[in-house]
Amino acid sequence: MAPSRSVVGIALAGVLGAASIAAVALPGAASAAADPVLVGAGDISNSGSGDTATAALLDGIDGTVFTTGDNVYDNGTASEFNTYYNPTWGRHKARTRPSPGNHDYNTSGASGYYGYFGAAAGDPSKGYYSYDIGANWHVVAINSNCGSISGGCAAGGAQEQWLRADLAAHPKPCTVAYWHHPRWTSGANHSPNTAVGPLVQALYDNNADVILTGHNHQYERFAPMNPSGVADSTRGVREFVAGMGGASHYSFGTIQPNSQARNSDTYGVLKLTLHANSYDWQFVPQAGKTYADSGTTNCH
């Protein structure tokens, strides 16, 4: 029988001294820490049970939680955040980096949203911010409620200029951005949003990899595309519509070009495992459902 690790450790201690043990790799010992995870969804909390199901998924997934807007319904009030969001997704508030949706702005200045999330939501007059995850990933949270902030989403506006400067200042191997209104979507309730086009262009110009959105209450994955919506396997940005956080489901309408995967009857969360030069995506369904979508893509 092979000696146990504890026996080996005792023997090594006698030869090397206790201070040297940490530098010795024992057989079967754990290697590097697991790659970081970004997990979440949008269109989340109301009086239904969908957010309870997706919050239970987060209970079993470590990592940073993102939201793609419409965190609470219908009006983004402080009372709604405390009544609906806090008992469910609020369990993960300390590790959540949110973005706002149009329902969050049904309360003037989205004061319920900014009051609930505090500094994690960024400057309340802007609602956009960025951060890094691990050594290789830069993350940008955008405010796609273009009419609610100075400069909106226009080219040359404050947010677009900030985004370009931020991306230039953080030349990580991989970049992911998230916001509420999807540039591309096949959902029947909300059409593709052209107002965010300048932000997509800025991301493309700086070799970003992934866009995460919500607004339509469903899941959809697109092929990597350029800002004109043309498939681009070299530099294209892959968009996900991750609006399956708990609000009632929406149906699909006209299926847009380059849409690769869709679901409109399953609540869930989107899990991104962030490797050094690539990412894995996984749709994690609510308990009792079987819809699945997963894959991997290299960073640019």
- DSSP E strands, number: 13
Indicate the percent of residues in helices. 10-25%
Nearest-integer average pLDDT = 91
Under CATH, the homologous superfamily of the largest domain reads Metallo-dependent phosphatases
Taking the sheet with the most strands, its summary is:
7 strands, mixed
Protein name: Calcineurin-like phosphoesterase domain-containing protein
Organism: Actinomadura meridiana
Signal peptide: 1-25
Domain Calcineurin-like phosphoesterase: 57-219
Q: What does the model show?
A:
This protein has 300 residues and is α/β, with parallel strands linked by helices. The protein has two domains: 1-31, no CATH class; 34-298, Metallo-dependent phosphatases (Purple Acid Phosphatase, chain A, domain 2). It has helices at residues 5-16, 50-59, 78-85, 111-117, 158-169, 197-205, and strands at residues 37-41, 64-67, 96-97, 129-133, 137-141, 174-178, 210-213, 219-222, 238-242, 259-263, 268-274, 278-285, 293-298. The strands form two sheets. Strands 4-5-6-7-9-8-10 form a seven-stranded mixed sheet, covered by helices on one side. The chain has a six-stranded mixed sheet with strand order 3-2-1-11-12-13, with helices on one face. A hairpin with a 7-residue loop joins β12 and β13. α5 (158-169) runs parallel beside α6 (197-205).
